[in-house]
Write a structure and sequence with these properties.
2 copies of one chain form a homodimer. Helix content of chain A is about 55%, strand content about 10%. Chain A is an alpha+beta fold. Chain A folds into 2 domains: about 100 residues, Glutaredoxin (3-Layer(aba) Sandwich); about 100 residues, Up-down Bundle (Glutathione S-transferase Yfyf (Class Pi), Chain A, domain 2), CATH 1.20.1050. A 4-stranded mixed beta sheet of chain A has the order 2-1-3-4, with helices on one face. In chain A, a hairpin with a 2-residue loop joins β3 and β4. At the A-B interface, β4, α3, α4 and α5 of A face β4, α3, α4 and α5 of B.
Chain lengths: ~220, ~220
């Protein structure tokens, strides 16, 4: 049996709650039915002990026995090797899920993260910089829309690729970025309607709410 | 033996030459000494035949027999499964290389691509949008610098993670983005000084130069 521990922050301020990336890992673990523990690292002090596991000073990381892995994409591929509920075991299905793992992160999130950060920080929208950011996301969604209109899940059956793509898209959706992409919106609703997402989301919210209490907030 | 074909554009205008992402795949194939063919897809017409292999209308993709894979990260992990010159075969080394594959693409390129595109398009630098983009890259480089100062290659031995990280960093380096990151600059020089990079780069330049001739340019 794998010996899995997910490490996330001990606390975060309210805005990112429900979106901290440990959610991707919780979601995958719940889908697979794999047993795991959750441990915390200080949000306020990202010292050498943190950087030894996650050199960019972020979360999450996962330990599997004496192996420690950072980057949600790498963690989900590792978990995919432990359960065919997360990654098809045949070579063709595995390649298809893997390409969409990168598609979610390096093609779609590459465009959606600057877009959602610009929205969150209320950058002016009459600039060349905003037009580039907005056009970039629109181009990706234009290509993704027919893909998601034609299939239920990216690699045929549900996989870690869907966890990543849905988690990326729901952030843009929260800023109304999917208004012209009905198939993308339906896909986000389909994915986040799964019981494992609900459990992962509730567990993350409870984790940070408990941290408020510990801080006397 | 694997039956590998790398597909790239038949032609691109001069500015991206030397940076088209088929270079990452050529580099990996040359490092591994794997035999491969190169085929072309029209740059000017990205129709259904292209989108069936690469749904975002980009390049490269790789075919391995009847398996077709897009996203340079997914392609390099696939090639890593064919050669331990590209990916360590022990679980711990494999996990370490894989997390740095995602680190290169989803942590560093996520920050460097908006930065280099803003530089390339000469967006004004007195805006909140530019400050966000510039601070984002600086934060990532600040964390990466001690990592690369302390080791020759990301996963101990050279791996696909280094191909991706070096290819990401050299674009920022071209716009003087590594001026305050001497270990990052030394790492780019170390990686791009490898014979397999030189071969991959020369082959890409020759491929597009031949296309100019075919077009009578």
């Amino acid at each position: 049996m794998p010996n899995l521990t997910l490490i996330t922050y001990d606390w975060v301020p309210p805005p990112p709650r429900g979106y901290v990336r440990d959610l991707r890992v919780r979601w995958a673990l719940e889908e697979a039915g794999l047993p795991y523990r959750v441990a915390s690292t200080p949000f306020d002090d990202r010292g050498p002990a943190h950087l030894a596991h996650q050199p960019f000073g972020q979360v999450p990381w996962l330990t599997d026995g004496d192996i420690s892995i950072f980057e949600s994409g790498a963690i989900l591929l590792h978990l995919g090797g432990l359960s065919d509920r997360l990654l098809p075991s045949d070579p063709r299905g595995r390649a298809e899920a893997t390409e969409w793992v990168f598609g979610a992160l390096n093609s779609v999130e590459m465009a959606s993260l600057p877009w959602t950060m610009s929205k969150f920080m209320k950058h002016p929208s009459d600039t060349a910089a905003w037009k580039f950011v907005d056009d970039f996301l629109k181009l990706r969604l234009m290509r993704l829309e027919p893909v998601l209109a034609a299939r239920e899940w990216l690699a045929g059956t549900f996989s870690v690729a869907d966890i990543l793509m849905a988690d990326v898209l729901r952030v843009a959706d929260g800023f109304d970025g999917l208004a012209d992409s009905p198939a993308c919106r339906a896909y986000v609703a389909r994915a986040t309607g799964r019981p494992a997402f609900a459990k992962a989301h509730a567990d993350q919210m409870a984790h940070f709410a408990a941290a408020d209490k510990a801080r006397g907030m």
